[in-house]
Amino acid sequence: MSKLILAIESSCDETACAVSRDGREILADVVYSQADMHALYGGVVPEIASRKHIEKVSLVAEQAVKQAGVRLSDLDAVAATCAPGLIGALLVGANFAKAAALALNVPFVPVHHIRGHVAANYVAFPQLEPPMTALVASGGHTVILDVADYTHMTVVGASRDDAAGEAFDKIGRVLGLPYPGGAALDALSREGDPDKYPLPPAVIRDHPYDFSFSGLKTAAVNLIHNAGQKGQAVNRADLAAAVSRTVAQSVVPRVVAAAKDHGRRRVCAAGGVAANSTLRALLEEECRKAGLELYLPPLKLCGDNGSMIACQAYFEYMAGNLGDPSQNCFATLPASEDVCRYESGM
Ligand code: KG4
Ligand code: ZN
């Protein structure tokens, strides 16, 4: 019997809902993006995000059910992202999904957002199966995971401060690019010379897999400000190219090393920053040299979306990782933890 799951994603500034069948097939994917509104403030304003989720969540879910061409009574479970993310934003989606699950008398499945990003690869590549090494790089996270199974993974390395996306967005803002700056900076970098501005690598030297993006961010921002104080202008394309290359050169060798050290043959990437063209090109080159199979989802599945949560929800459901009506949400939680079993002590 096939399993139909409706899932809500509301961890940041997108109210998304998707319906999956058996985890791999997406019957509907509806998203309401708040990005334009947060762009007015140069970043996501948590309270506005929560309020917009409340306004849109029912509508987005209704549209997804319609698009999927299913009846509510056909659903086998209702899922929602419960960690990590903006706590107020998460609570909106989770409470909506819990209420829907209760009303439909089906299980509620809490989903980890980072596990969802990994699962974007299962949507894009229906034959792909763990084990594998995954890089998840987004606005909030930069993490290398050893994915032993769909619901079992360990954190091999992570950023100790800013996420890669945060660095892209901050540098983009100082360069006068529209928020969020990652995609615009990527486009600009294609016309630039990456050798013009030397920048510090975004790695922790005494740890083989950890990152630090705050030094890179500060170095690029200082470079722009210092040039401004001297009445000089930086070449925006050259700096964008230098930033993109520094991020790619910091991240890719560590991902390849993690795969080799853990005996994995497959590597996948996910998260908004996995859309970066320099990062994708270097991953392709280095994985080919190392004899690793690389999986890169299409750009629309890299950033936050409902499909990835609906897909991961299926695997959590099959593993028996269900939430009860008291299920809480958590602003931070490593992807190694099952959200349904986590106790915050609060
Ligand atoms: O996964 P995502 O949509 O949301 C989070 O979970 O954070 O990632 C958003 C991040 C933003 O920082 C955005 O600037 C960055 O992904 N991003 C990019 C590109 N496209 C989006 N960064 C670099 N190059 C891109 N092409
Ligand atoms: Zn995300």
Order of helix and strand elements from N to C terminus? EEEHHEHEHEEEHHHHEHEHH
Number of helices: 11
Structural class: alpha/beta
Whole-angstrom Rg? 20 Å
Instruction: Give unreliable regions as ranges.
Output: none
Global outline: globular
What percentage of amino acids are in beta strands? 15-25%
Using DSSP, what is the number of strands?
10
Largest sheet: 5 strands, mixed
**Which ligands accompany this protein?**
5'-O-[(R)-(carboxyoxy)(hydroxy)phosphoryl]adenosine, zinc ion
Structural summary, described in words:
There is one protein chain. 44% of the residues lie in helices and 18% in strands. The chain is α/β, with parallel strands linked by helices. β7 and β8 form a beta hairpin. The model has no long low-confidence stretch (mean pLDDT 96). The structure holds 5'-O-[(R)-(carboxyoxy)(hydroxy)phosphoryl]adenosine and zinc ion (ZN).
